[in-house]
Structure formats: structure tokens, C-alpha cells
Amino acid sequence: MGKLTDKELKNLKPKSKLYKVTDGDGMHAAVTPTGVISFRYQYRVNGRQEVLTIGRYSAVAARKLTREADALEYGMQVSLAEARTLLGRARCQVERGESPSKAKVEKRTASAAALTFGGWAEAYFKHKADPKSGAERLADSTLAMRRSVYDRAIASELSKLKLQEITPQRLKRLCDEVKEKRGPAVAVHVREIVLLVFRHAQACGLDVSNPAESIRTSAIATFEPRDRALSPSEIRAALAALDHVSAAPTLRLAVKFVLLTGVRKSEFIDATWTEIDFASARWTIPAERMKSGKTHIVPLSDQALDILTAFRTMFGASRYLHPGRYDSETPISNATLNRVIDAAVKRVRENAPDFQSFGVHDLRRTFSTGLNRAKFDDRWIEMSLAHAPRNRIASVYNVNRYLAERKIMLQCWADMLDAWMRGESAKELIADAKRRAADIHDDELDDDL
Hints:
Blueprint (H helix, E strand, L loop, with lengths): L5 H5 L8 E6 L2 E5 L5 E9 L2 E10 L1 H5 L12 E3 L1 H16 L4 H14 L3 H13 L10 H19 L9 H15 L1 H20 L28 H11 L6 H13 L3 H5 L6 E2 L4 E4 L10 E4 L2 H14 L20 H13 L11 H14 L4 H7 L7 H6 L5 H19 L5 H12 L11
Parallel strand pairs: 4-5
Antiparallel strand pairs: 1-2, 2-3, 3-4, 6-7, 7-8
């Protein structure tokens, strides 16, 4: 029937470009530059030229007994004899006016559609944990939290159901039950996880409606916005959206600068260049501008210094780090940064409708929450936030305390943000920073009698 033999197939060597070796009856062996050999069938059906990939050549399969025709499927690893069996099947389909290539796709889609919600959930978690997923990969902590919610509150109710069986009414009923049993926060996450699993299935080509899109988060629970602190995944979404809002690039940098430093909005808006010391990488905010009435020193990370360099390049003629748009002798208005943030939130909501809004002060809360979750020394964090110690004597003595440790911590915080933006875990960064802070010698201490 054909011209090729197993010996010839085994001796085919890759070249710089893909090349073909004819077998017969429209089938050829395609050899890629990486050495993969696949059998392909070129045919015409209903006036269209099409190509079907019958399967990948396997030397192992060639050494075994040829499988029965019923056990063979397009796309498998096959021997030459098995490929010819599948070729015969494809030729019969073409003679009937059917497209074997289209039939292959439809069968794969039908197989995917047959997956239960539990199967798609596992596929979602696997995709989000895979380093090869790039920007789609989730931080370990976020993935662990979602997995925990799925295992505890979703799996027993939905895992064995087909996607089409999960209706908005069924999901809402589950959310209400979870809210009653486990609390509103868990119920909101149940809705979000179902939303994301369905979106993953849709991204894989499955034509199915998403029941979670019919349920607003507010119908499950509402939360007091004053407690807003962004999670790593929310930080990533917000900063990514920030890069695409129609605002001056320096205003986008200003929002990130506040997140990097954890300062209050007024402390940034009224900041002047006389307060910045590039040589020592410090920002000294005078007492008269501080809520506590005491001088505050902010160690500057490399990322913060890069932003200040951009500001200096743009606004070197102004006394302010970031002056107003129309007058270089006045700072930006109180509402400017919030308007930029609102634009970023609006963009995030294009893909995540229930993303909660936040303001400039929430960046400071995010700064505090992020460092506390990383379990840095709370004294360093409180000093970084310029929170006055309860002990008045300590509050005077500790004006410059823990600067060396805080410099390491704030550089780590900046690196954490970068890692989250890349979809990577920050665990190693945090552990390394804590080790270096613990190794600070006495002669590096800022306050010594």
C-alpha cells in the first residue's frame, strides 16, 4: 500500500525546516526541526483543501502488536501500520462527504464538554499553579486559599455535576447556605471560584454560559469599604490596569510610589525635593507635615528611587515632587490620585465586575497588611507607618530607630510587588530579607548611646 517502512522512518533526521516524505494515498510523514515525526493526510472535501494530523509516529508502538481499529483515535502515538489503518478510516469519511479533521475537533470538544465541574476545577487549579502559565499563574497563597474554599464549601455540592447542570439558582442557593454556615466572606469566594472555573472552561473553547455572571457579589454580601486592603492578586490586577488608563505616566507612577512607601496622601502631595536625599536613599518628612508632629524618615527602595528619578526629570524646575498640571508652583490636588485609581478600577472591572473600589488611603492599608502578612517585625512596620509608640519616651528616642532593618523590609516590599506582577511567589524574597535584617551588626544600628 505504501512506500515508507519503519526502518526508513527511524532513519529520518530533522532539518532546519519542516519537510515531508510521501507514503501514499494522500498520507505523508512530516518531520519537524525538533525531530518529531507525524503522519498527515491531505485531502479535499466539499471543495475545500484540508489536512488531518493522523497521529505522531512512535518507535515503541512500532515494536508492539498493532492495536484493533476500534482502539485507535486521531492524534494518538501510532505505528506506521496503525497510521495506515486510521488513513483508511479518514478516506471513508471523505468519500461520504465528511471532514475527518472537523470530526476530530468536534469529538475533542464533546469530550471536554463531558467533564464535570470537578474536572474543570482541577484543570483550573493546575493551570493557575503551572509556572509555564506566565501571567496567568497565581501566587501560592492565593491558590491555596481558593483550593481550601473549593474543598470545604464547593466540591461536595458541585464537583460531580456537568457544567450545564449548574444554574444561577443552584449556585445562589449554595452561596446562601455557605453564608449561613461559614460566613459571608467564604460565600463570596464560592461565587468567585465558580466564576473563574467557568471562565477557564470558556477560554478552552467550551461554549457554556457562566452561572456566576448572573449573581452580583452584593446579592451575597456587602463589606465595609473602609477595611479595604488589596490582596496580591488584586494588587497585580490594579497595577496592570494602571498602565493602561488615560492619565499622565507620572500620575500612574505616583500611585505606585505611595504603595511602595506606605505614606499618607498628604505626605506625598506636599513633598518637596529638599526632603529627598538620593545619596543616602532617604526621604525625610519634616515634623510640621506629619500627623504625629514628629520627623519621619522613609528608606527608599530602588524602585522608589527610579520613580523619583522620573519625577526629577519631568519636574526638576518645581519644588514639588509632582506639581499640578497647570502650575508647577502648586502640588497636585487631593482628588487627582483617586481619579487615577478610579480609572484603573473601572478597567479591572471590564474582566472582573465585582472588583471592589479603593482609594489612596487603602494603598497605605495594603502596605501595612502586606508586611504584616509577611510577618515582618511589627515594630519596623509601625515605624514605617509613622505610628507613634504608646510610650512617650520611646517615641522621642525612636525617631530614627530600625532604619537599617526598615530599609531591607521596604526593598523587600518593592520586590514582592514586582514578583506578584510577574505572577511569582514572594516567599523566598521575604525569607531572605528577614535573614539579612537579623544579621545587622551593632555598628549598623541607627541609635546608640
